[in-house]
Amino acid sequence: MHFLRVIMPLRYLTWLLSGFGFIASLVLFWLYPLIGTTPVLVLGGLTLLGALDYFQKKQAIRRNYPILAHFRFLFESIRPEIRQYFLESDTEEIPFSRAQRNLVYQRAKNVVDKRAYGTMANVYGDDYEWINHSIHTKHIENNDFRVTIGEGNCAQPYSLSLYNISAMSFGSLSANAILALNKGAKLGNFAHDTGEGSISRYHREPGGDLIWEIGSGYFGCRQPDGTFSPERFAANAASGQVKMIEIKLSQGAKPGHGGILPAAKVTQEIADARGVPVGEDCISPSSHSAFNTPIELMEFIAQLRELSGGKPVGIKLCIGHPWEFFAICKAMIKTNITPDYIVIDGAEGGTAAAPAEFTDHLGTPMHEGLILAHNTLVGLNLRGRVKLGAAGKIVSAFDIARTLALGADWCNSGRGFMFALGCLMSQTCHTGRCPTGVATQSWLRQRALDPEDKGNRVYYFHQNTLKALGEIIGAAGLAHPNLLRPHHIVRRVSVNEVALVSALVPYLQPGELLKHCPQHPVYQLFWKMSQAESFDPAITPAEAAERSAALV
Predict the structure, then answer these.
(1) Which InterPro entries has this protein been placed in (predicted)?
(2) Which of 31, 38, 39, 421 is 20 to 30 A from 146 (CA-CA)?
(3) By C-alpha distance, which of 228, 202, 231 is closest to 215?
(4) Do 380 and 521 have their domain in common?
């Protein structure tokens, strides 16, 4: 026995047995032809597979464990599904919990979304949050909550819902997914952001309101060399469907990273929407060519507002270097030109596929980015002129309420509306093999997604979420979500201590930045580094730190 283990280790036993079985099945088939060829073919195939594994040199595990290694590959390939369906808890967010997904599915299907037997959340765990209720509650009749964008500054201001579809391009999402999203937006009278892939015929067909996002590739408004085309922009912006224009500076999924749609994926439909040649690589640079400085960005905003006939124009970004955002704000003061709105995208977003390092470790999370933007605009007396939107894992009414309390005027959601379409969170968006037809260009896969049915689900998800928001606001004794403030949100900071968010986060007073530099370390360090004339720091971080230390 010891001799056999030396000559043929146990890890080769499967291969050895299949070989013996193959020989035995050959003999039996020769003696008794009625047993058929199936055992011969199966055992012969396994024997051949074991031989190929043993003699190949690319994978050590196959060479050491012929045949058996393939079971590892099989289980590894379905590991996410095994974890999601059998091992994951209902409250484990990776990146969305089963409880969060089920809430969306129920509201999208317009079925009961109530839950019995108490909360599954650990109310004594760190960072647990809630809103205190009122004895004197309010009954809110109309849950169609809205905010006006561009009022007093635009010829065509827009009344925007407090909950809208975040930027997701045709090309990233399937044609049927875009049709369903826009149909839902049309039914619910809320807005659908096109993503930087521009306006396709699938956006136009249902007729829902659009926020046209313009990225660094200027898709839909570009010259053949990839630079901005005022004429093409004006032609597209004239559409009655286009309600707002959004300049994308960066996105939460991959801030500071450009993109490329390979030539093989640039179909005629995608080429028509983006204004690029069919069958050529479609490149999104990592930065814009239409402006190089914060002041030029403000001038570009003014140009787009004029070319669009007075429609609201804003910017979207994931906050990076604080001095760059401060530079943009200083440019607003210097030019007296302001965007009509700013959308803060969180690093915890989004639907786009990205390198792992960008997804996990680049960009500011939404809460911190939103608070910084809100504080800075308040400190410069600009908050009344610039509305703030926010995006980043916002799928429930409480998510919306918390985000509004932190300083936002409205919220966007990408993955929430993907769940409404039937997304299972298989996390295969970048492969083209989406099992529900949401994030794929495969005709066969996307035919499973019925735009009529899923459009209704998008509508119901939006309506039922805002209805739940109205119930939360009324229970808190408020008449409208725009009355939410940081002191309405309570956060547990330890087992024995809770605090209002207003006590945890310092908020600036109106005009404070115009009078002096606040004591907050972010402003002490980075405000003096910013300049309206450039995105580059006016002084180095080391010099800024020295000046801050001298003040102390």
Answers:
(1) Aldolase_TIM (IPR013785), GltB (IPR024188), Glu_synthdom (IPR002932), YerD (IPR027283)
(2) 421
(3) 228
(4) no
